Amino acid sequence: MKGFRVELQELSKRFGVVEVLKGLSLEVKPGELVALLGPSGCGKTTTLLLVAGLYRPSRGRILFDGRPVDHLHPKDRDIGMVFQTYALYPHMTLEENIAFPLRLKRVPPREIKERVGRIAELLGIGDLLGRRPAEVSGGQQQRAALARALVKEPGLLLLDEPLSNLDARIRLQARTEIRRLQLDLGITTLLVTHDQGEALAMADRVAVLAEGVLQQYDTPETLYHRPANTFVAHFIGDPPMNLYRGRFTPQRFEGEVVWPFPEGWTPPFLGEGFLGVRPENLQVVWEGEGLPARVVLREALGREGLLTLALEAGGQVKALVPGDVPFRPGDGVRVRYVPEALHFFDPQGRRVGDGVAPARGA
């Protein structure tokens, strides 16, 4: 399969007086998997439906390989789509469901059988083709829906929350399988999800949306290490970044938390702004150098623990620690960090500086 190059140019969508998508521009390279990520109501599903042709844009253009497709009916856009509910016909077998788009295109029966069998084997459901959707598991239904989208060999695959109806264990397996298949086929893919773990694990690039506006479009690594603004900084990462409003002075940050800086080091700007630091970039020790603090709360997260710490200088901070270190509420500790682990944002929440946070414990 050869994937399209997809361009969205100043794409907007209005429902009555409400503008749910506001001037979205981005490009998806051929064979790339791009995730549209954001909270409910951010415009990600609207974007997908615009690309599919199920909505018409209020403003802007959609191009496939440089050709405008705004005027084309969905069936003429050469796309495959997998919905959250899978939308399989319950009275048909999996084979009949997968073959349905080929029959609509009047593909010869022998070719239909060959193509359905090939894609079913690729997705591991070749021995289930005679069963109806109610007779297979949710994961197998999801594979059948994916097979139906891919059997017509589209130039673009659209995935609308395709894993949200699966339980956690199957979801992890399914996202790996979808990504492997997408890479093997080289098909351009747009994935809509509210799950940042899913987006960061599967996508080449991620478009983070909030209130219909593109906040940042970048690789997962860049979103994590160099968030463009405070929304992305807090939205990307689990647990989320510690983020505080206050004022930078040469010696410290003062606001919702008091954060002294190392001697001889100054922040990239002075005055009002936001300070951020990820819990995994802090090191908590019993004694020695570091910011004096006291453990307020410990939350067990399996191999790690999440501490809520009250800093002696003022305010609270969260830090990740190894799960086998016995910190308890009331313990006095020290919090260590390196300045490169800090993130700085101006009063409007825009990133200042281009530092990359080090690995945990550095």
Automatic annotation (TrEMBL):
<dbReference type="InterPro" id="IPR003593">
    <property type="entry name" value="AAA+_ATPase"/>
</dbReference>
<dbReference type="InterPro" id="IPR027417">
    <property type="entry name" value="P-loop_NTPase"/>
</dbReference>
<feature type="domain" description="ABC transporter">
    <location>
        <begin position="6"/>
        <end position="236"/>
    </location>
</feature>
<dbReference type="GO" id="GO:0016887">
    <property type="term" value="F:ATP hydrolysis activity"/>
</dbReference>
<keyword id="KW-0378">Hydrolase</keyword>
<keyword id="KW-0547">Nucleotide-binding</keyword>
<dbReference type="InterPro" id="IPR012340">
    <property type="entry name" value="NA-bd_OB-fold"/>
</dbReference>
<dbReference type="InterPro" id="IPR047641">
    <property type="entry name" value="ABC_transpr_MalK/UgpC-like"/>
</dbReference>
<protein>
    <submittedName>
        <fullName>Glycerol-3-phosphate-transporting ATPase</fullName>
        <ecNumber>3.6.3.20</ecNumber>
    </submittedName>
</protein>
<dbReference type="GO" id="GO:0140359">
    <property type="term" value="F:ABC-type transporter activity"/>
</dbReference>
<keyword id="KW-1003">Cell membrane</keyword>
<keyword id="KW-0067">ATP-binding</keyword>
<dbReference type="Pfam" id="PF08402">
    <property type="entry name" value="TOBE_2"/>
</dbReference>
<dbReference type="GO" id="GO:0055052">
    <property type="term" value="C:ATP-binding cassette (ABC) transporter complex, substrate-binding subunit-containing"/>
</dbReference>
<dbReference type="InterPro" id="IPR008995">
    <property type="entry name" value="Mo/tungstate-bd_C_term_dom"/>
</dbReference>
<keyword id="KW-1278">Translocase</keyword>
<dbReference type="Pfam" id="PF00005">
    <property type="entry name" value="ABC_tran"/>
</dbReference>
<dbReference type="InterPro" id="IPR015855">
    <property type="entry name" value="ABC_transpr_MalK-like"/>
</dbReference>
<keyword id="KW-0614">Plasmid</keyword>
<dbReference type="InterPro" id="IPR013611">
    <property type="entry name" value="Transp-assoc_OB_typ2"/>
</dbReference>
<dbReference type="InterPro" id="IPR017871">
    <property type="entry name" value="ABC_transporter-like_CS"/>
</dbReference>
<dbReference type="GO" id="GO:0008643">
    <property type="term" value="P:carbohydrate transport"/>
</dbReference>
<dbReference type="InterPro" id="IPR003439">
    <property type="entry name" value="ABC_transporter-like_ATP-bd"/>
</dbReference>
<dbReference type="GO" id="GO:0005524">
    <property type="term" value="F:ATP binding"/>
</dbReference>
<keyword id="KW-0813">Transport</keyword>
<keyword id="KW-0472">Membrane</keyword>
